[in-house]
Write a structure and sequence with these properties.
Elements (H helix, E strand, L loop, with lengths): L2 H28 L5 H23 E4 L3 E7 L14 E4 L5 E7 L3 E5 L14 E4 L5 E12 L4 H7 L4 H18 L4 H7 L1 H18 L2 E13 L1 H76 L2 H11 L31
Antiparallel strand pairs: 1-3, 2-4, 5-7, 6-7, 7-8
Length: 344
């Protein structure tokens, strides 16, 4: 309780005491009792009540979150030229009065549902995009009143600055901004740009009327039921197309993988065949080389062939009886190499 309210409370108690003592004095006078002391007390309390009432009516305490406009019949225009800032002030009792305005941050919400903000009723902004789609924009205007501008606000708008200034200006600015974008841009890519454009234009309009825009919040954007269904169907079609594309890509990858496996098997078969052929060539070359060496060795040492021949006849025979007059039991192959005579 501030001092102005305290004085007004004392004035109220004083008037109650005056009334009570007055009734008591009248009762005592009706019984023809002495009322001199009571009458003096009543007169004293009456004077005190009048003084306190006048002082209480003249003192005004402005809270730190308020600013006051003095309405008067003494000056031109019906108002004092300067606002009352926070603190204790004196006005002319019963001739002047004070209209208080809040200087704290306030929020004005325009929403499609009645329970979204402090205002009741469906006051969302209906607008049309550049491609003719109808949308509903829910938003909030966060603002405050500048203490130095309360005289201008009271003179122009009084308490109607939300309904008569903020609401129509915000609606017009939002509709103008929405009309510059397509519905898909409003929904996604250009939403931030649109919000910035609305904020700047609304800030200028409010500043011209003594209000400071703290922030503009684009709460929600909704569409008509028909367009919402078309968007849903489009999204379903896009998802199906993406799924089909994914299946095609998957099949392509599987085909490429099978091709690479087949190519690898073919390459492996070619390499294996080439290796086998090279192995046979090497083996044949080695065999030919070995035969050449054997032939050369036999040519130089024919007794080796006779020895091998004997061994092949009977590998386990330790003793051989040869008839008299015969050198061998069986005829030996002719291992004599006829010399080649070259004619000159």
């Amino acid at each position: 309780m501030n001092i102005a309210e305290f004085i007004k409370a004392l004035a109220g108690f004083s008037w109650m005491a005056v009334i009570g003592l007055g009734i008591l004095a009248i009762a005592r006078a009706g019984r023809k009792q002495n009322t001199r002391g009571i009458t003096s007390l009543v007169i004293g309390l009456l004077v005190l009540a009048v003084v306190l009432t006048v002082v209480g009516a003249g003192l005004v305490f402005i809270e730190p979150t308020q600013a006051g406009v003095v309405i008067t019949i003494l000056g031109q225009g019906g108002m004092r030229p300067d606002p009352l800032l926070p603190g204790l002030h004196w006005i002319v009792p019963f001739v002047e009065r004070v209209e208080l305005y809040p200087t704290t941050t306030q929020t004005f919400t325009m929403a499609r549902t009645a329970s979204e903000g402090e205002t009741q009723g469906l006051i969302t902004v209906e607008a049309r995009t550049s491609d003719g789609q109808r949308i509903f924009v829910d938003s909030s205007v966060i603002y405050r009143i500048e203490p130095s501008a309360v005289i201008q606000i009271h003179k122009t708008w009084q308490r109607r600055y939300q309904d008569d200034l903020i609401l129509p200006q915000a609606r017009g600015i939002i509709r103008d901004a929405v009309s510059q974008y397509r519905v898909d841009e409003v929904l996604s890519t250009k939403r931030f740009d649109m919000t910035t454009q609305i904020t700047e234009q609304l800030r200028l309009v409010m500043a011209e009327n003594g209000l400071t825009l703290v922030d503009f919040v684009l709460r929600d954007i909704t569409f008509t039921e028909e367009y919402a269904q078309s968007i849903e169907q489009k999204q379903i079609a896009e998802q199906q197309a993406l799924q089909a594309k994914f299946v095609v890509e998957q099949k392509k990858q599987e085909a490429e993988q099978a091709r690479q496996v087949a190519q690898g098997q073919a390459d492996a078969a070619v390499i294996a065949a080439k290796g086998a052929a090279e192995a046979q060539i090497i083996q044949a070359e080695a065999q030919a080389k070995a035969n050449e060496l054997i032939g050369k060795s036999l040519q130089e040492n024919p007794q080796i062939l006779q020895y091998q021949y004997i061994l092949k006849l009977a590998p386990g025979v330790q003793t051989i009886f040869i008839p008299s007059g015969n050198q061998f039991i069986l005829p030996l192959p002719n291992t004599t190499v006829n010399p080649i005579v070259e004619t000159p």
